[in-house]
Amino acid sequence: MRLGHTVPVTHRFGAVDVHYPPAGGARAALVVSSSTRFDDLVEERTAWRDTVADYQPGQFYLRELPALAAVLATTSPVDLLIVDGYVDLDPAGTPGLGAHVRDATGLPVIGVAKTEFHAATHAVPVLRGTATTKPLFVTAAGYDLADAAALVTAMAGPYRFPDALKRVDSLARGRD
What we know:
Distance between the termini: 41 Å
Largest sheet: 7 strands, mixed
Shape: globular
Strand order of the largest sheet: 3-2-1-4-5-7-6
Mean pLDDT: 92
Order of helices and strands: EEEHEHEEEHH
Low-confidence stretches: none
Radius of gyration: 16 Å
Number of helices: 4
């Protein structure tokens, strides 16, 4: 390496989702981008789990975390992770899926929820797309909440739900 030569830093930003087919099991998916706009997906991964924990109200993360860990284990580390859901469920910090993902991975996590949760009064509503009046609800851990809302607002795609999140959902459902 020459003196004064700067090695470029490569950032990796991921979005994950999990689908539970009616026949059982779980398919987790990950898309990776080098941009927080997620306008250049550089990698797509899926992982299958034959068995999953039964759904337990208030403990959804017990069902979701093993599948997410499986897909994250298939690739190089990411610098930030976006999950489908809430990071925390209320202003007091009751952990949602994203908080458990943060605890398990140490990564900054942004939660993007499609539906409003009554106790999550701290979530930032984000309107995307010109034809929608229905917001997404953004929460975060390890990442400034206002910056997280701005990131989600700026994500690629003309519609309410960003293109990368549509793609990872499609992969999780096996519609590649």
